[in-house]
Amino acid sequence: MTQDRDKGVARNMQELLQELRVAQTGVQVLFAFLLTVPFQQTFRQVSTFQLNLYYATLLAAALSVVLFVAPAAQHRMLFGKQDEARLLGRFNRQTIGGLLCLGAAMVGAVLLVTSYLFGTTRAVVTAAISVAVVLAFWVVGPLARRG
Fold first, then answer.
1. CA distance linking residue 25 with residue 20, whole number of Å
2. Which one, of 87, 85, 57, 62, lies nearest residue 72 by Cα?
3. pTM for this prediction
4. Please, which pLDDT band fits residue 60 given cuts at 50, 70 and 90?
5. Contact 29, 105 (CB under 8 A)
6. What's residue 53's pLDDT?
7. Residue 81, Cβ neighbours under 10 Å: how many?
8. Which pLDDT score, from 0 to 100, does residue 81 have?
C-alpha cells in the first residue's frame, strides 16, 4: 500500500515538474520582454496609468517566475528527506499561484501594449476578452471537468 502511494506521489511530482517546464518558458519570455521595455526611447512617452500598469505587470511576471521555480528549488534542497507527499501539495499551490500571476502578467502586458497603440477603449475591451479567455481555459474549464 505504501509502495503504491509512493509511486503515485513520484509520478505526480514528475508530472508537476514537467508542467512547470512548459509554463516557465512562457513566463520567462514575457519577463524578458518586460525587462527590455523601459530601455526603449518611446517608453518615456507613456502615461502615468501605463507606467503603473507596467510596474504591476512586471511584478506579476517576477512573482510568477519565483512561484514556478520554487518547487524545483525546494525539491532539490530537500532531496532525500522522504517528504515528497507533503511537498507535492505545497508545490501544487505554488504552481497554481504562478499560473494566476502569469495570467495577470499576460493580461497586463496586453493592456499595456494595446493602450499604448490604440487607446483606452480598445485596450479595456481587449483586456476584458483576455481575462475571459484565461479564466475560461485555465480556471472554469478545469473546474467544470473536475466537478
1. 9
2. 87
3. 0.84
4. very high
5. no
6. 97
7. 10
8. 66
Q: Could you please report the per-residue DSSP string of 118-147?
A: H-HHHHHHHHHHHHHHHHIIIIIHHHHHH-
Distance CA 136, CA 132 (A): 6
CA dihedral 37, 112, 52, 44 (to 10 degrees): 50
Nearest to 99 by CA among 142, 146, 128: 142
68-109 pLDDT tens trace: 888 878 877 776 666 777 788 888 899 999 999 999 999 999
> What one-character-per-residue DSSP string does the chain give?
-HHHHHHHHHHHHHHHHHHHHHHHHHHHHHHHHHHHGGGSGGGGG--HHHHHHHHHHHHHHHHHHHHHHHHHHHHHHTTTSS-HHHHHHHHHHHHHHHHHHHHHHHHHHHHHHHHHHH-HHHHHHHHHHHHHHHHIIIIIHHHHHH-
C-alpha cell at 60: 506579476
Angle at 90 between CA 87 and CA 96, to 5 degrees: 140
pLDDT exceeds 70 at position 6: no
Please indicate whether residue 81 or residue 21 has the higher confidence score (pLDDT).
Answer: 21
